[in-house]
Write a structure and sequence with these properties.
The chain is built from eight helices and twelve strands. It has helices spanning 14-26, 37-47, 63-70, 87-95, 108-122, 156-167, 175-183, 191-205; strands at residues 6-10, 30-34, 51-55, 78-83, 100-104, 130-133, 136-139, 144-147, 150-152, 172-173, 210-213, 217-220. The structure holds calcium ion.
Length: 222
């Protein structure tokens, strides 16, 4: 990543797109805007940005479809913008490979904080080495994983979450603790984010990879 990461903003409401772009440029990001689903996909393919800010409701096709298409060959971190009341769509979005979401109306400052948190994780040097548990193996230097010998495509957040459990076997974490340690959010709000990503990790690494401890939270499967 360069000192000035490139961000694609896919948003059809001009006022929001302009406000986001202005703030992100002031933070030193290179910003490019697309205003509908198809041009959003084209922009990301051409630009290869460091991160995508993606509105959920878009003309053409929606943000979930954009997310699927741009994640098909290479993972790029995605933060979704969603309106209040679109909770079920949101869960689909997180399932389609978004790393995080922020609900409209949001402050540009909050969005910038989320972007920095996701970029920090995406480019963190997790150390080299392999983490293994049952049929799951993660290569922390390449951020790649296999399940029963088959390569698994993990998003930044899914990888970090799985690695966290592998590094702390036998420990059960509350959702709030996971938000603080894996996502790096000091306020620990957004339990739905945790649940959606746990679902995604189970879908990719096996239903028993993460266990639910009722009334407490989640831990590595035993
Ligand atoms: Ca919209």
């Amino acid at each position: 990543m360069s000192d000035h990461p490139t961000i694609a903003v896919v948003e059809d409401e001009p006022a929001i797109a302009a406000a986001v772009a202005t703030r992100l440029r002031a933070e030193g990001f290179n910003v490019h805007i697309a205003v509908d689903g198809p041009s959003g996909v084209a922009l990301v393919e051409q630009l290869q940005p460091d991160l995508v800010v993606l509105d959920l409701m878009l003309p053409g096709f929606d943000g979930i479809e954009v997310c699927r298409r741009i994640q098909s060959d290479r993972h790029v971190p995605v933060i979704m913008l969603t309106a209040r009341g679109n909770e079920s769509d949101l869960v689909l979005g997180l399932g389609a490979g978004a790393d995080d979401y922020i609900t409209k109306p949001f402050s540009p400052r909050a969005l910038v904080a989320r972007i920095h948190a996701v970029l920090r994780r995406a480019h963190a040097a997790p150390g080299s080495g392999r983490l293994r548990h049952r049929g799951v193996e993660l290569d922390t230097s390449g951020r790649t994983g296999t399940h029963d010998g088959v390569a698994v495509h993990l998003t930044v957040t899914e990888f970090d979450l799985a690695a966290w459990f592998l590094r702390h076997p036998g420990v059960v974490f509350t959702r709030e603790q996971l938000l603080q340690s894996v996502w790096g959010y000091p306020d620990g709000s957004g339990e739905r984010t945790v649940d959606s990503h746990i679902q995604a990790v189970r879908r990719k690494l096996g239903p028993d990879f993460v266990r639910t401890v009722h009334g407490v939270g989640y831990g590595l499967g035993q």
